[in-house]
Amino acid sequence: MVQRSPAGKLEAIVARLLPRSVAHQIIRRGSNDCGFVPMGPFMAHFGVQNQAFLSEVELSFAESQHIELARNGNEAHGSRTDRAIQNDADFPDGGVNAWRTALGGFLAFIASIGFMSGGSVFQSYYITTALSSSSASDIAWIGSVQLWGCFFFGIWAGRLSDKYGPALPLGLGTVFMVFGIMMASISKKYYQFLLSQGFCVALGMGWIFTPALAVQSQWFLRRRGFVVGAVMSGQNVGGIIWPVLTNKLLIDNGMSLGWTLRIIGFIQLGLMTAATLLVKPRFPRTSNIDGFPIRQYFTHKRTIAFTIALVIMDLGIYIPWFYITPFTMTYGASASLAFYNAAILNGGAFVGCHALGIVADSGLGFFNCLTVTTFASAVVAFAWIGARNVGGIIVWTVAYGILSGALQAIFSPCLSLLAPTPEVTGSWNGIAITIGSFAVLGTGPIAGKLLGDEDGTGYVLMQLFTGICLALAGVFYLATRVLVSRDRWI
Predict the structure, then answer these.
(1) How confident is the model over 129-138, as pLDDT tens digits?
(2) Cα distance between residue 407 and residue 313, in whole Å
(3) Membrane-crossing residues (predicted)?
(4) Domain extent at residue 21
(5) How many domains does the chain have?
(6) Same domain, 45 and 163
(7) Residues 6+ apart with CB under 8 A from 470
(8) What is the DSSP letter of 456?
(9) Domain check: are 102 and 63 in the same one?
(10) Helix spans in 279-361 (H)
(11) Hey, which bits of 110-160 come out as E strands?
(12) What global pTM score does this model have?
């Protein structure tokens, strides 16, 4: 077997990553237009003598030159900058294994994040019945801890998925989530609900969320927006199913809270078993992946700006999901209608997840769609202040559901495009999601503190906070979009 020199290896990498005409131009002649130099002088100048340095160059050089090509609008590489950011790997974009993985992710989101999306039902029930002696702010910690755990464990879950495949973290998540629900079914006091339905369920969801989402980007590129949106819409399907089921069992049929939670737990177990069997990684298991690439993650300004935007967005976007049920009841809606309004919110989000993914795939670009949708969500969030009757609240719920669902579906494809290789999309998503977890941890309690008296006017500060967070997030997403490329469609 012929051994290549370090220079020869880097030339082979460039030849593999770029179209033939562009690679030939870079390696043999250089390209003044793109700012390249021939490989031989490049390697000689830097004195590359070891494989460790070469590995670092492989990632940073290939990624930076892809982006430079996109900025200069090189015809040989195409105008789709989102493909330039991530290396042109041979994505299947279909096939049995790809679609079964998408179905598995969809089921996992129904069982886990979908349950959390319907959390306003339990928030309302605990405030009025089961934990009426506790404050709204205290009870909000249950949902906030769930949301925090879902995000916080992402970095470890994503790395575990990259190394050993998604089945292991999905299995661990199933055990913790179902166990937490079963323990909540026998809980009587606030701290017991916080430990079981809060921390234990949060740990389970944290092991499920990132692997079920990030693995989709290994299989799809052209259809990535549609597929990720479809998978994430599972949380909205769950957000419709769980409130309706809870309302039927708990309110209409008078079933105890304990048995209601046990039935939910058994359904989750069945869904997660199917999801774990269906989800399949594209790349073989390996233990050769290095440690967490946190330093590499923060190398580029665009990634930093994106992460700041994500954190600010997480501070505000979930507030209506926690409080839409009690807010609806404040203006005279029955408990049954208020419970169904949580399902309406998730129904709107289901539409948004699918619609924006299709629009982004059609050529408008993921970063364009993300930026515009964030600003539109901020406008709708400020309009929440004017929703003062049941009809107006329902109309607002549909609009916010569509936009917030779209935002939750589009951020992961954008983040995956910023990753240097498809193999580390799990880690890239995990790092960002873990950082965002510290924002979502305080979402419910902050909103609870901003919530004033019970005549409805007490919601104004909370509504303003939601709109301001989304508006600021839009500013940083816009900055990210400019830092990635100044091309029109990205």
Answers:
(1) 888 888 877 8
(2) 9
(3) 106-127, 139-158, 170-187, 193-214, 226-245, 257-279, 304-325, 337-359, 366-387, 393-418, 430-448, 460-484
(4) 6-68
(5) 2
(6) no
(7) 313, 316, 317, 374, 375, 377, 378, 381
(8) S
(9) no
(10) 294-297, 301-317, 319-330, 335-359
(11) none
(12) 0.68
